[in-house]
Design goal:
By secondary structure, the chain is of the alpha+beta class. The chain has 7 helices and 8 strands, in the order ββααααβββαβαββα. It has one domain: Gcn5-related N-acetyltransferase (GNAT) (Aminopeptidase, 3-Layer(aba) Sandwich), CATH 3.40.630.30. The longest helix has 16 residues. α5 packs across α6. The strands form 2 sheets. It has a 5-stranded antiparallel sheet with strand order 1-2-3-4-5, sandwiched between helices. A 3-stranded antiparallel sheet has the order 6-8-7. The termini are far apart. Bound molecules: coenzyme A (COA). Coenzyme A binds next to β5, α5 and α6.
């Protein structure tokens, strides 16, 4: 079971069934889903339930996803993927929460938990070329080694150019220690 992680401004905790209506509302915003790979648009509570049933809290070894809670409400989610040699890091926030550094704060906490509690050596991620905010988040968290790839985006029914990046345990720990 995932723990509860507290940062200066946020609480990261396991997703619960009661979050699904709010998650549906926030991720149902096309401004959010248009940047994500596997999220359909429009998005229904049934879509949220299907996703919820695949998470670690429900299966014991599914997707390790934290709800990002702010002011006692689910504001988004951050995932460190399923247990794998190089798990996938993914995230989103409701539109009204953008631009205040929340995702960098949440991402750093989730990655710290992953590296501290598992023997994961490398985490993979990626974003569309057009998603400057997300590429900035990845860069601020220390992801490097960008190479181009194509990302299929379900909500748009399109395959679009993106950047694939990775983060090593060593680099994350070096950055955490204040070096660059
Ligand atoms: C990507 C996302 C999670 C970023 O969340 P956030 O909390 O706003 O991110 P942060 O504030 O921590 O960092 C964003 C950075 O990008 C910058 N930024 C944001 N929008 C930008 C834009 N349109 N152009 C250039 N820079 C931008 C911010 O200034 C910030 O950089 P700074 O700290 O150097 O100022 C949020 O926009 C989102 O959920 N988008 C839709 C879903 C998505 O894209 N998920 C990721 C898929 S790969």
């Amino acid at each position: 079971m995932l723990p509860v992680l507290r940062t200066d401004r946020l609480c990261l905790r396991p997703v619960v069934a009661g979050d699904l209506p709010e998650i549906t509302r926030l991720i149902g915003d096309f401004a959010v889903s248009r940047m994500l790979s596997v999220v359909p648009h429009p998005y229904s509570v049934e879509d949220a339930e299907t996703w919820f049933l695949q998470t670690e809290g429900q299966t014991g070894n599914g997707e390790r996803v934290f709800a990002i809670e702010l002011d006692s409400r689910a504001a988004g989610a951050v995932s460190v993927g399923k247990p794998a040699e190089a798990p996938e890091f993914g995230y989103w926030l409701g539109r009204s929460y953008w631009g205040r550094g929340f995702m960098t704060e949440a991402g750093r906490a989730a990655l710290a938990w992953l590296f501290e509690t598992t023997d994961t050596q490398t985490v993979m991620s990626g974003a569309l070329d057009e998603n400057t905010a997300s590429l900035n988040v990845l860069s601020k968290l220390g992801f490097t080694g960008a190479h181009t790839y194509s990302l299929s985006v379900k909500s748009r029914g399109e395959t679009l150019p993106g950047m694939r990046v990775q983060l090593s345990r060593e680099r994350f720990e070096t950055l955490k220690g204040g070096a660059s």
